[in-house]
Amino acid sequence: MTAVSEQCQKSHYDVIATEKIKALWQNYQRTRDYSLQICSTLSDEDIQSQSMSDASPLKWHLAHTTWAFETFILKPSIPNYQPFNPHFEFLFNSYYNAIGAQYPRANRGLLIRPTRSEVETYRRSIDKLMKALFDEGLDRELYNLIELLIHHEQQHQELMFTDFKHLTSFTPFDYQYFSQGVKIESNLLPVKSNASIGFSSGLYNIGSNDDSFYFDNEGPRHRVFLEAFAIDSQLVSNREYLEFIDDGGYQEPSYWLSEAWYKIKEKSITHPLYWQNKENKWLEHTFSGEKEIVPELPVKHINYFEANAFASWKGKRLPSEYEWEVAAQSQNNSFNMMEQLWQWTSSSYNAYPGFKTASGAIGEYNGKFMVNQYVLRGGSVATPADHIRTTYRNFFYPGASWQFTGIRLAETL
Amino acid sequence: MTAVSEQCQKSHYDVIATEKIKALWQNYQRTRDYSLQICSTLSDEDIQSQSMSDASPLKWHLAHTTWAFETFILKPSIPNYQPFNPHFEFLFNSYYNAIGAQYPRANRGLLIRPTRSEVETYRRSIDKLMKALFDEGLDRELYNLIELLIHHEQQHQELMFTDFKHLTSFTPFDYQYFSQGVKIESNLLPVKSNASIGFSSGLYNIGSNDDSFYFDNEGPRHRVFLEAFAIDSQLVSNREYLEFIDDGGYQEPSYWLSEAWYKIKEKSITHPLYWQNKENKWLEHTFSGEKEIVPELPVKHINYFEANAFASWKGKRLPSEYEWEVAAQSQNNSFNMMEQLWQWTSSSYNAYPGFKTASGAIGEYNGKFMVNQYVLRGGSVATPADHIRTTYRNFFYPGASWQFTGIRLAETL
Amino acid sequence: MTAVSEQCQKSHYDVIATEKIKALWQNYQRTRDYSLQICSTLSDEDIQSQSMSDASPLKWHLAHTTWAFETFILKPSIPNYQPFNPHFEFLFNSYYNAIGAQYPRANRGLLIRPTRSEVETYRRSIDKLMKALFDEGLDRELYNLIELLIHHEQQHQELMFTDFKHLTSFTPFDYQYFSQGVKIESNLLPVKSNASIGFSSGLYNIGSNDDSFYFDNEGPRHRVFLEAFAIDSQLVSNREYLEFIDDGGYQEPSYWLSEAWYKIKEKSITHPLYWQNKENKWLEHTFSGEKEIVPELPVKHINYFEANAFASWKGKRLPSEYEWEVAAQSQNNSFNMMEQLWQWTSSSYNAYPGFKTASGAIGEYNGKFMVNQYVLRGGSVATPADHIRTTYRNFFYPGASWQFTGIRLAETL
Amino acid sequence: MTAVSEQCQKSHYDVIATEKIKALWQNYQRTRDYSLQICSTLSDEDIQSQSMSDASPLKWHLAHTTWAFETFILKPSIPNYQPFNPHFEFLFNSYYNAIGAQYPRANRGLLIRPTRSEVETYRRSIDKLMKALFDEGLDRELYNLIELLIHHEQQHQELMFTDFKHLTSFTPFDYQYFSQGVKIESNLLPVKSNASIGFSSGLYNIGSNDDSFYFDNEGPRHRVFLEAFAIDSQLVSNREYLEFIDDGGYQEPSYWLSEAWYKIKEKSITHPLYWQNKENKWLEHTFSGEKEIVPELPVKHINYFEANAFASWKGKRLPSEYEWEVAAQSQNNSFNMMEQLWQWTSSSYNAYPGFKTASGAIGEYNGKFMVNQYVLRGGSVATPADHIRTTYRNFFYPGASWQFTGIRLAETL
Known about the structure:
globular, 12 strands, 12% strand, homotetramer, alpha+beta, paralog of FGE (formylglycine-generating enzyme), three-stranded antiparallel beta sheet, Four Helix Bundle (Hemerythrin (Met), subunit A)
């Protein structure tokens, strides 16, 4: 879904300090453990099934993230490397055409074997080989690539939550899937009193130029000219979204993009994914079953079309990704711009000026998805905390609702 | 998929001898155990996934067959019966509209809960209540209904094998799914030298009038007039089917029904399901992986369209279900008419003269499927042995290939 | 859609009397003229468009029926025959794989050229060559084949009415498409008081053995044994069908075949094709616009699923095609068995015992459609009068509603 | 497909000079006549059929453009206006939800009535009423709205050519559809020697601020900051595109966006729409049949995915719409930027800062299409000459190939 750091492209030999390697190893271990921890309260069935082709089984996520270390690190680093299982190259390759053919995405839930226990053995085996590699020391290229793949596994950790939530919505009665320890939905904070924060027109710098990790699509850093704009300090709340519904929002074509209008009419959609109205109460599906909507919490699992329609109804608009980034960097995140919900921007996902796709398979990480998707900014309660930054560009198709996505509004001044 | 014995309809009180009840209880236990035994070497993942909407997960079969005893026996027999889980009525109802709404068939593989262990508890709990019922004695109506549901579970046992075989074909490398004890594919016998056995024209009696169990669709017994015909003593072998393929059978439209021709061209089908040609060898997918085709064994997993095309190529035709039944009853099964492979007949599945659908939910067992399906006769290596009889009418859509289906040819004299 | 007379297969030279040839020529002329007459009040647009892939544009029917004479008569009879237009072989071949590839059926309405006027020139040109052939005299083989193709054009004449009616239903306001002279819908007669006519069990002869023309699928004549049955003297009326609707017929699953139930629920079907309820009045679409339903007329444009559901509701069943034929031959058609509406039978369309497909392209006329279709008997107000006979076997898919199809009920005694 | 001028929004009374009105009337007449002229050599069938739901029948275009004058001009201007035909409001409303329901787009080719002659009468009748209105004088609001609808009809004139070209590709042999007078394809000029023209980084003004007509989506005029870039002086030629094909361009995934790759593999696409390889010659479908590809002409009927893949292969990229506009305004069009082929830009179609949708039905003209489409610039040989300007923003889905679309490349300096 995302990318390779620019540093990866500098492939000259470059010794990395032992301390830095140690820190990376700890990061590696922590990340690898967390993937298993997510599944620790789940049954074998829970991590087997696939509810739509956009989502993957959790067992597949566990294997694929491991496959990535095996394929991009171990295979080129260890002479005469013998793969753990030669079939895995095909089964757990997500979309890297340069690596080879891929098992059909829509059938991932039909992979009854390897079993969970075999996948866990696979993980341990690869981790052991990775440990040996770390012990030998890493050059800069390897260091950067491993760092990238740690971030890659973190991306999949968020998907594990969102894909699994989608799957649980097909079991029509309540289970407590996660232990109390795993706070996801309960970390959402109530929306406060809203303010519109103004920014003057001018040239702004956009994109990362940081020493710390970023994906290739976050650069190159470059200038954009923005007209004066204002952005809301708060996410849109359930209460406001309910007002939109109650005002006939899903029945009035003038709020909706044409493509969206035909879709919601064809499928008789009248509310967000995971909502249902039962005896005049609005309920939402959560990891612990059907719960009543809490009006003051931010509205979530909203797709681009809904976000856009809500903005039209409100007489505002979605921010561009540039406006969002400028606001996020100026506000020190005091407005919950990050770590609550991904926020749709009006920006179609495209390359920054001067962006170059890396060569080889890793070049397929980000660039080839730059059409028909829209940029989301900010991170969510399901995103690992050290995976969030103001320059981060997430992207999904405008009809996608199964991520933890919300709405922040803007306007031209 | 099939039906209720005529006796069920006599609902007057009628005491059944203790010995007969004891025998039924043993039959019940044996049947219930066998369902679990089929799954005993399979992982939780194996019994969770669903490879197409025509097939069901094995976990679902385990639950549904239990649901049938709970719904049709316990619920009406036990005053103030409290269901094991009120959601199960919806989840494990296959197609009984008279019982209520049904969970969407295509989503059965998304039911991550109840888990396997919860389903096993469900089975034990219902079996315990059934035992108590048996201990109290059964009237004729209950006796007949339980007998029907035992046969119902046997039907599902065959489907467990065929549905699971379909699922395993999506895991593209070899596993030994069953222990040596479970002989299915290995029970197929080589085809011997073929003979064409003649029958003279005349009136024949068709259908069951037996005292022993039969489904409603096997009656009423009635007369049909048959012109003189001959039927082959042997099933078609892999060798003969390979000749058909080698002779361009899948490329010559005149052998094929029009509907079939468009399908095989659209999907580029050139051989039976589960076959593939690898380095000039024909392999077939089995429960223990890809195996080379054995020429002398009967060809299997053939659909009606293929059977019909093969017959055209051979200058013969498929037998009608009447011809098949007359032959089977005359031959004492010396020609492997039963217990090897289901055999397609040219008869569309329809009601026998005077057939009446039973009232209530159980009436949905058979009658409502009487359109666009074709009758198969004979049973297969996956059919429980005491579930096979000469009057048995199995039925599938003409495009279905995932059952253990073969070809026997006939001709008009 | 249907077939070749058995006589065609006797290909020995056999001189035909001049008088018989003259009569055939008159038949030819009358038939060819009628096709043009059907279109005489229609615009170029009317005969151009195609409303579904099951139906064809009238312009295409005009060309295809001409193509049949060119392909099956002129081409083999005239040495060095130069086709009228070499592209027409591809464009106007309906489904004869033995002739060659076919223009995709669903795109027939996109054939803007040849224009109507070019097609009319094509017709005249072929007719002229046919006249020359007739003038030279015909042997039996040619005679029979021409007779077959005259019947073929008559079949298409009925389709011209039914396909065009379907097309007109997409123009949502009223036109008078045909002149007063063309009586189709207005030839339907009111249903009278119904009687149930009994027939005793026994052996009956089925199929044609006539000297006059019949299609190959009407033979060979053979015996069938029928149990005692009774058949209604009258077609089902709109009034009775409205009672079925008012009684919740489309909401009660127990009346419907399983496949039908899912379809009518999925598509929210609650009444026959061409009906609509407007301000509490039932209207039907006709060739002269929306008209109020006349209760005493027979219900039409009913598919097999509806006919079957109505029969279940009524506690009766559809007749088999054998029962229908026995009744029709005994009653001298005093019960409007013919010339009103095609009547669905419970018989799946299959070969009579001993049926052999003719060799060559003409063998594709009937046999290859013998799966998943149901036999209709009797003819309709849209069928040319001399194209109707008691042994005639029409066939359509059970979901087809756009033919002039009605219901006659039967029961087992 | 496009929009309303900003001036329209000033609705105060404002007398327009007689001379200006006279000029507008001449423009009106010329435009209305041209629509009929396009069809003058076409048959009734040619203007009836619809080859895909994205395209409309020419008869429908003739009626819809007339409907627009009736609905937006006559209806609000003439007291107690009686519509020409009350059904036309529904039939010829393209997508204006504020006007009411619309006849299903995919069925436009099934509207056999009104006939061509009735549509021509409709046109004359509305023109007559428009003439009367012009004679009474126009206020500014009416003037602007009529001017907008003249441009609207011009847009449809281009679509008439592109939609009809698509339709003719289904008639698989050659016709000369247009007279020699109608030059479309023959107006394409050979590509000359290419140069890369550089532009320095800086702030540029984008969008129209002209007194002459423009659509709402071309404004408001605003500033953008562009990094230094260079743009090619020439369109990509057939010769260059053939090199891409010969180099395996359609077989190498790394050139393609992920979504595009799956599409071309699924549909086995290996060349542009309308091309075919026949006996080792590349032919293209034209208005006068299949013609050999001329290497020096610009490649056309290219979709966004192909344009993007070609750019990747070439090591360049598509220009943004801003870069294109800056280049077009600086070059005085000496590089065939306009009037040859629409050129894909990398810009997703979105609102300019400060863009507001007009209120009422006319507000649906442009804004509601601002998702998942890409901006094309420059006009084509099928565009009416006075309908082309440097600020014009055309937009289509990235998979669309049936417009006259080509490729111009750019690069970041």
